[in-house]
Each structure stands twice: as C-alpha cells, then as structure tokens.
Amino acid sequence: MRIPKILYPAGILILSIGLWALWSTSRTDSTKTPNNKPQPDKPCGLETCHGLDVSCGPDIAEMCTEMYMAGDGCLQFVHCGYVNGQCTQIDTARFEQCAACVQRCEQLNPDDPTQFFQCENACVN
C-alpha cells in the first residue's frame, strides 16, 4: 500500500508536535529549588574572586583582578544556589577537600612561595 505524498507533511507535523509535548513535560524547571519552591527573581552566584572566603549573593563577580590569593584554584569547585529561599554556598566535598589542602600547604610552607604553589597545584588537580 502506498501512502500519498500529501500525507508526509501532515505526518511530520504530528510527529513534531508529539515530540515537543513529550520534551516540554519531561524537562525540569530550573526556577525551582530542590524542595520545589520557586526561587526569588534575584540572581545568585559567586561574589568573590579570590581566596577561600567565599561569598554567594546577587552581586555576582563579572570581572576579577589578576591578583592571586591562596585558594583561588579551589573556587572552581564552589557552587552557589538557593536553599530555603536564601542564596548561599552549596557545600561540596571537592571544595572542602581543596580548601583544607591549601590551608595545609600554607602551614607547611609559610616562607617558601615556590613550595607553596607546587603544593597548592596538587590540591587543585
């Protein structure tokens, strides 16, 4: 049995609508927190650029100086988000491990920047 060519566009349209409906109902809403409460309209992100004193909030750092502080490499493991409606740092084991390692490096190499940076590099990688 041959299907008339005129039905091909209709079939493609029906298939497209079905796939769109499936996709739109299956995706998660990124404006909800894990407890399914809507997030405030304010942005939430990393406000600090340097060091281990992390600050999360609406004033997200867009540009940072080229200054370097101990622990800067660990900032790649920081996550900010909404918890109970508040923008806060989301604790991750990887950041905590990195920060503790950098602090050990500072204690072990207080007067040797070269040794410190080699030690800190091992914390980040």
Folded structure, characterized:
The strands form 2 sheets. Strands 1-2 form a two-stranded antiparallel sheet. By secondary structure, it is α+β, with helices and mostly antiparallel strands. It has helices at 7-26, 93-108, 113-124; strands at 45-46, 56-57, 79-83, 86-90. It is elongated. The chain is built from 3 helices and 4 strands; from the N terminus they run αββββαα. It has one domain. Helices cover 38% and strands 11% of the residues. The longest helix is centred in the first third of the chain and has 20 residues, at 7-26.
Give the secondary structure arrangement, pairings included.
Layout (H helix, E strand, L loop, with lengths): L6 H20 L18 E2 L9 E2 L21 E5 L2 E5 L2 H16 L4 H12 L1
Antiparallel strand pairs: 1-2, 3-4
Helix pairs in contact: 2-3
* DSSP strand tally: 4
Number of helices: 3
What's the mean pLDDT score? 79
Radius of gyration: 24 Å
Q: What is the strand arrangement across the widest sheet?
A: 1-2
Major sheet: 2 strands, antiparallel
Compute the separation of the termini in Å.
63 Å
Kindly estimate the percentage of residues that lie in beta strands according to DSSP. Answer: 5-15%
The helix content, as a percent range, equals 25-40%
Number of domains: 1
SSE string, helices as H and strands as E: HEEEEHH
Structural class: alpha+beta
